[in-house]
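Today's session is about reading a structure prediction critically. Students often jump straight to the picture, but the first step is always the sequence itself: look for stretches that repeat, for charged clusters, for runs of hydrophobic residues. Only then move on to the predicted structure, which in these notes is written as discrete structure tokens rather than atom positions. Here is the chain we will use throughout the hour.
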Amino acid sequence: MPEHSADISMSQSAPDTGLKRAVSPSNLNTDSAGAKPEQKRPKTQQGRPHRPRRLRKADADETVLDAIELLLRETWLNGRSATDCPGIPAAFGWSSGDQDAEAAYSRSPPIPAKLAGASEAECTFDVYVHEMTERGVSIAARETPEQLRELVSQGQRPWFFVVPFTLKGEQARIRSVRHEWGYTQSDLLEVTGKSPLRIEAPCAYFGRCSGCQLQHVGYNHQLEFKRQVVERAFAHANPLFGKLPVLSVSQSPLPYGYRTKLTPHFDLRKNTPIDNVPIGFNIAGQRRVLDIEDCMIGTDVVRRGFAQARKDAHAKMASYKRGATLLVRETNVPGEGVGTSVADTPAAELVKEYTLDPKSWVTDTVGDLKFRYPASSFFQNNASILPAFTGYVREELHKWSGQLAANDGSDGVLKTLIDAYCGSGLFGIACHQDFEKVLGIEISNESISCAGDNAKMNGATNTDFLLGDAARLFEKVDSDPSSTAVIIDPPRKGSNPDFLDQLIAYGPRVIVYIACGVPAQARDINHMYSRGAISVDGHTATVDSKPTAVYRIAAIQPFDLFPQTYHVENIVTLVRED
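Below is the predicted structure for this chain, in token form.
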């Protein structure tokens, strides 16, 4: 672990902290000195009463609520010598299960906020940053770490603020903006006490633009932060998973200049001069657009396209009625005098260009492979890491095919590969050479057409891509599960219980689960555990009927496809125990 990493990262999850979010806050609406603040009816600038927004738990950011509860529990554990309580409290600030007390506290912020009608002076606070959440924002309070420990040791809690662009251990001056259930969203005004890990962000827009959250942290510390994001997600899904080792994050070859797609946008508001409409990305914490002339995480080609897209939009701004989202995407095309088509041109001889047309077709290269798809459709947006990303999946499958075959002396156990949620065929085609047959399935007709064309263009003649719902995939599979591997690459929300139950019932020898939404991935694997299909250190869930297959978690390998942001991809290898 890098030096000082504990100063920026989320708390390390531990089984004895209890990771389920306790029911939330009490009606202890007191300031740090213990005095109850005077409650004034907020007014607008015109003097009319401001109608307060009703706070609902369902509207709050669950990752923030989870981070607050984990912070309270770990703070209590760190200060438990100051209390005679034999065990960690089930809740802080109210009695466990007292939903009325929770609501009374969470809906009654003890501090004013800008959107609640307060003045700038009333909304300015000095706070201490106590933790950083998995989304790259921080949890802060007016209490120092010592004051927080004393408060929590008494079973109480302070009022928390969510602050962007800060690091654990820092002190900051903030503006309270919007109340949520049990905390207040805030703007950063000034960092008054800096962490030794803070660096100068190279982008002029950082701190205002919502696109990047971590430019103020060195890249090695970003990688450690993301490893801990994965670690915490699994420990939160199941305390047993907290014992599993999470490998170091595989880094992007390009920490900047990596993104092959950008989607700037603009809004047309009343009284905005037509020649002064901002085009860019949202201001952090707001729905207004920040005018951005250049984006450092885009590739050189995409940055040229970004400038052209802005120029074109400004030139025809009068033709728009509501605003628009623009598309800038990198593509690979035959160079002058090299070839007439992408299919006829080797990947190494293609040259990079950009397109601004969502209806056009683009080509990405991954090593010697080429993939074509509509510019508006999904494809991974960091081409620099894709050879390592797909290569890891192929290596895991090849490794386990050989290891599982070691006892019978065969060339390899795995003969069939099933690529669920196959999209344009990226993983199935990248791994096809090690299998006798590859079967891909996708719900999108357009994607299936692309996957078939890409297989043909890359000479992957042993592939077959079928249109259908992954939840009914195994109705079309006739291969022996003992010689079959399955790749799962679902959308950010994860898979669904029906598909996972069918997967367990089918019982493939190896499963490789690729995820852009790590909490959903951990939840899905915990669903498999609840069905008795996952073993951790010999522990399995007690179930009425024994599942067809039981898997061990062989590897958890994160990848950083999106440097400078909080996003992390993760690959989990599950191997059937026979």
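Discussion point for the tutorial: Confidence is low (pLDDT under 50) at residues 1-7, 11-48.
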